[in-house]
Amino acid sequence: MRFIDEYRDAGLGKKLVARIEQLSTRPARLMEFCGGHTVAIMRNGIRQLLPPAVEMLSGPGCPVCVTANADIDKAIALARLPNAIITTFGDMMKVPGSYSSLQQARGEGGDIRVVYSTQDALEIARDNPQKSVVFIGIGFETTAPTIAASVLQAEQEKIENFYVLCLLKLCPPIMKTLLDLGELKLDGIVCPGHVSVIIGSQPYEFIPRDYDIACVVSGFEPLDILLAVAMLVEQVEKGKPRVEIAYRRGVNPEGNKRALELMSTVFEADKADWRGIGVVPASGLKLRDKYARFDAGQAFTVTLEPVREAKGCICGDILRGVKTPADCKLFRKVCLPEHPVGPCMVSSEGACAAYYQYGADYG
Ligand code: SF4
User: Fold this and answer.
1) DSSP state of 246
2) Measured distance CA(92)–CA(346) in Å, rounded
3) 52: Cβ–Cβ under 8 A, 6 or more apart, which residues?
């Protein structure tokens, strides 16, 4: 197939659903790790198409949602420093921290600018040499190479006023942490598509080997996801879990060598604070010593109030896959996209936002 419409073909979709029905003889609990998959599944009504024996749970793969309040508070505190310009992707603006959000901080006079790429942030740094320009670096392995490239470019151009608040996170370590928590009894995982373009499918090999859980890397179109589910159900039925790729047009087992090199040139693994999970060793990235001068966390001292969580918000449980947005008492009542209580209602990849927008059956 060459065109995107072909991955949305209803006739082929029906055939894949029939294939899943034919294969499915026993319960299969599957988790889509990635928030982009959650949105695609909800938007296309994929859960409703699957046989009752195939259950789908959402995981922690929304970078905005998993960013801990402590880190959001830090970004807001940086925005209050005199002479600072904060640059961020738009999704972060409305995310509530303990006491405020970047949007509120902007209303109070903070110079906070939404950018579409790290190149935009570098441009702002070039144009404002008298200011400290901080890029809020959230994301997974998908985003890390472009942030790494921006740091290298800043070094090459001797841009002295560019900094990164490095909140990057890594998928395989948090998958292992979730499985080790033992809260989920999974049979299969729909592995993230965009992350796997960078890291390949090999980093998931430990999952079938150590946990007996099937893994299939999926793309984001409805047929990609149905194909991945069919492959997972087939593995579950055969009792032979392994790692497969249903997203061959984007992913190979080894990943993108150039992007991986860029990442490891600039970053090294470090602990990261995950909403609902806590601090997990080696599940994030920090700037290597050679590039530490770009690290906003080291360059600026900020005073932080004690961290608070929004009362009644169960984002943490949703991100661990143990609850769904429909379990939240605030969903659709107090918590709405216009007045989000937690990040899962803010982010375009958030489970609560996806359930709100596409899941009329829920809540
Ligand atoms: Fe948090 Fe709102 Fe989702 Fe409830 S509906 S878990 S309050 S984001």
Assistant:
1) S
2) 8
3) none
Nearest ligand 1 atom, CA 331: 5
- Global pTM reads 0.93
Max CA distance (Å), the chain? 66
Closest C-alpha to 151, from 43, 291, 253, 52: 291
Q: Give the DSSP H or E segment for 132.
A: strand 132-139
Query: What whole-number distance in Å separates Cα of residue 245 and Cα of residue 228?
Result: 8
From the list 248, 246, 224, the residue with the least C-alpha distance to 6 is 224
pLDDT in tens, 137-190: 999 999 999 999 999 999 999 999 999 999 999 999 999 999 999 998 999 999
Which DSSP symbol is given to 306? Answer: P
3-state SS assignment for residue 339: strand
Distance from residue 352's CA to the centre of ligand 1 (Å): 6
Residues 6+ apart with CB under 8 A from 38: 32, 58, 59, 61, 62, 349, 351, 354
Q: Which atom of ligand 1 is nearest to the CA of 343?
A: 8
Judging by beta carbons within 10 Å of its beta carbon (0-12, 13-18, 19+), is residue 294 exposed, middle or buried? buried
Q: Tally the residues of the chain.
A: 363
- Ligand 1 pocket residues where CB is under 6 Å: 313-315, 318, 325, 328, 330-331, 335, 340-342, 344-345, 352
Determine the Cα–Cα distance for residues 94 and 216; give it in Å rounded to an integer: 33
